[in-house]
Q: What sequence folds into this?
């Protein structure tokens, strides 16, 4: 009875706190500018199923992809067992689905156990890759401090979770063999789960039944506590990608990667300039919206999709490891661009929540987080966009930052000023006369 | 053989409409190395009796470098002026040997009112060969030679064109060898995003040197390109390693023109 109440409080509290944090993040994302990504829903579903559900883009690197898939499959399938834990927790029952599901129950739990072993192997591999092998992609400057701790913490939590599952099932197996399990009180038998049948014998077989009862409960409570802890850790962690990967891929850019947005505000002005009948001094139309800033200086100038991207990033660094600028030693790292966007948004969002919509802390994404040197090193090659397993687009952030610098602040690298002047004056990025454009046809 | 390069203006004066406009681009018009690529394309068009024209002095920068550099004003000014010229001549189809112009004309002009069918020159040449209009001479100069293809970002990743240039290289009876990073994973030459017009930021290596290393690792005799900027960057990369004598950098159009004895 007491345990049911404790469980109920945890359940309600856990989900309430999680919901609260999700709403905060949603509000932050909606600070971004609007962009329409509601068209073509069939193509969007397809992209989501292939890229998020099927993890298609992970498989360009097969070994980590397989291990990651094991973790992911274990996570998804374990949710089924979690339903039983919820029911048992509230009703005070024990393995409530075993009798009704019979053989399928044995199969299901066995499947979970096998996946859990694979997940454990994956976790150990990932931990050693990060901390022993020191894979360059996972040990870059932008990961110093919290991101590194975050990554290791998630992996350690996974290990604890899997350990709890096996402690619970293994101890229960040993108890059942002695006729002491809370399942089918008094009867003896075996659950027949693939891994814990073995563990029940070898590891737990010689333990006293008091110890076994304690271990079984520790396993059960440990499992569910880890689940609640994990759930509420997600919104603070890069691991949030396990949820946001789905909406983020659904709202992917479906256009060709080479197509940059045409700024509508600029189109209106250029049309005015080219229209000989337009009155340049005309007052703006009644009720016309206040002109937006050109490009992006801060996160609120980016689109909500850029901001969703930022929260979806799991800092894997595939973008950065494929970036031509980064691999040749330039300061630009597409991963850092996305992480900076998220960190700045979290900071600004917190301020706005406390101080209201007009809040300003005098800081901005460009300048306080991202430097001009970084954004000018980009070749717009789209390698980062191509590589991202969850369809994040770091390039569109970089381009919007450039737009702000160039169009609002006139801060352009000197050589580019020359290039731009040439285009404006003689229709080519170099200083050639437009009259010489066809000379090649008559040269040898 | 002298080239026949009709302009839109002269064609219009004769009351004729070309089937396709050849958008030469700034590199193809002014850069000495890229002009050779332009001429190779024209040789192929002439040999196949393609009814084409160029804008000549009426052509202007597509606006790509301005847009990538963040200057949307200059880009849209260029785009709208170009659209006025193109629409004035009722242009329907455009071929270009520059992937940057290709991308901009194809993807970014439509929203500004310019709707054309835009193809890359490797796609046009592929079509000319497949329809039997262009024949490569047997026992071509490239038979058995190792050729590697460097994917231009704005042709490959940006527009998913990977096969047309590769199919052409295979038609040369050459051995197509791939670099460790190719197709969707291809490495940029370092010129995109307006980098062509500025010095690189501080780092420990030039991007084109990194990319040239990839090409040299394949032991290819020829680096094939499909972009005038890539051509410049790879040529400079080869010079950096002093390998000009053992490895050439040629556009796919030049390879085909050569193999067809044009």
A:
């Amino acid at each position: 009875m007491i345990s049911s109440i404790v469980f109920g409080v945890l359940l309600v509290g856990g989900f309430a706190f999680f919901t609260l944090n999700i709403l905060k993040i949603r509000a932050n994302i909606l600070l971004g500018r609007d962009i329409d990504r509601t068209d073509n829903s069939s193509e969007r579903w397809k992209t989501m199923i292939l890229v998020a559900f099927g993890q298609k883009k992970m498989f360009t690197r097969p070994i980590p992809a397989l291990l990651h898939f094991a973790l992911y499959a274990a996570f998804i399938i374990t949710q089924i067992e979690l339903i039983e834990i919820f029911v048992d927790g509230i009703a005070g029952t024990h393995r409530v689905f075993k009798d009704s599901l019979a053989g399928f129950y044995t199969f299901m739990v066995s499947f979970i156990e096998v996946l859990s072993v694979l997940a454990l192997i994956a976790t150990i591999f990932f931990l050693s890759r990060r901390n022993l092998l020191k894979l360059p992609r996972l040990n870059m400057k932008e990961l110093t401090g919290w991101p590194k701790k975050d990554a290791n913490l998630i992996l350690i939590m996974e290990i604890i979770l899997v350990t709890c599952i096996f402690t619970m099932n293994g101890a229960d197996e040993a108890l059942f063999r002695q006729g002491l399990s809370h399942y089918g009180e008094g009867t003896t038998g075996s659950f027949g789960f693939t891994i814990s049948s073995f563990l029940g014998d070898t590891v737990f077989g010689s333990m006293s039944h008091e110890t076994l009862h304690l271990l079984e409960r520790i396993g059960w409570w440990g499992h569910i506590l880890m689940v609640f802890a994990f759930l509420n850790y997600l919104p603070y962690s890069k691991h949030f990608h396990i949820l946001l990967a789905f909406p983020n891929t659904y709202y992917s850019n479906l256009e060709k990667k080479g197509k940059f947005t045409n700024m509508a505000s600029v189109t209106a002005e250029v049309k005015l300039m080219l229209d000989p009948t337009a009155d340049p001094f005309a007052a703006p139309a009644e009720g016309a919206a206040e002109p937006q800033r050109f490009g992006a200086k801060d996160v609120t100038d980016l689109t909500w999709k850029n901001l969703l991207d930022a929260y979806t990033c799991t800092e894997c660094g595939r973008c950065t490891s494929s970036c031509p600028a980064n691999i040749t030693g330039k300061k630009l790292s597409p991963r850092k661009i996305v992480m900076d966007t998220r960190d700045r948004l979290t900071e600004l969002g917190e301020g706005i929540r406390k101080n209201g919509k007009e809040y300003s802390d005098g800081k901005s994404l460009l300048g306080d987080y991202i430097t001009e040197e970084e954004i000018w090193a980009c070749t717009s090659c789209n390698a980062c966009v191509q590589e991202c397993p969850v369809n994040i687009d770091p390039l569109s952030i970089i381009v919007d930052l450039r737009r702000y610098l160039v169009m609002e602040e006139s801060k352009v690298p000197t050589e580019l000023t020359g290039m731009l002047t040439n285009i404006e004056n003689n229709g080519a990025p170099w200083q050639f006369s437009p009259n010489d454009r066809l000379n090649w046809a008559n040269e040898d | 053989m002298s080239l026949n390069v009709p302009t839109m203006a002269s064609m219009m004066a004769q009351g004729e409409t070309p089937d396709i406009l050849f958008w030469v681009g700034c590199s193809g018009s002014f850069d000495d190395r890229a002009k050779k690529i332009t001429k190779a394309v024209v040789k192929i068009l002439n040999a196949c009796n393609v009814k084409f024209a160029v804008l000549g002095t009426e052509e202007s920068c597509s606006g790509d470098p301005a847009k990538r550099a963040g200057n949307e004003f200059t880009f849209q000014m260029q785009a709208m002026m170009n659209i006025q010229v193109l629409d004035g001549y009722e242009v329907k189809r455009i071929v270009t040997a520059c992937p940057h112009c290709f991308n901009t004309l194809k993807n970014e002009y439509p929203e500004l009112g310019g709707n054309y069918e835009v193809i890359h020159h490797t796609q046009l040449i592929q079509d000319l060969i497949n329809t039997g209009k262009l024949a490569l001479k047997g026992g071509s100069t490239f038979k058995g030679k190792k050729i590697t293809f460097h994917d231009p970002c704005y042709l490959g990743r940006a527009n998913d064109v990977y096969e047309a240039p590769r199919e052409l290289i295979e038609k040369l009876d050459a051995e197509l060898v791939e670099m460790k990073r190719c197709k969707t994973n291809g490495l940029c030459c370092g010129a995109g995003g307006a980098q062509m017009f500025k010095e690189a930021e501080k780092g420990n290596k030039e991007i084109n040197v990194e990319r040239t290393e990839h090409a040299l690792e394949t032991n290819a005799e020829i680096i094939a390109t499909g972009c005038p900027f890539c051509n410049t960057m790879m040529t400079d990369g080869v010079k950096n390693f002093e390998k000009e004598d053992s490895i050439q950098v040629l556009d796919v159009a030049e390879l085909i023109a050569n193999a067809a004895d044009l």
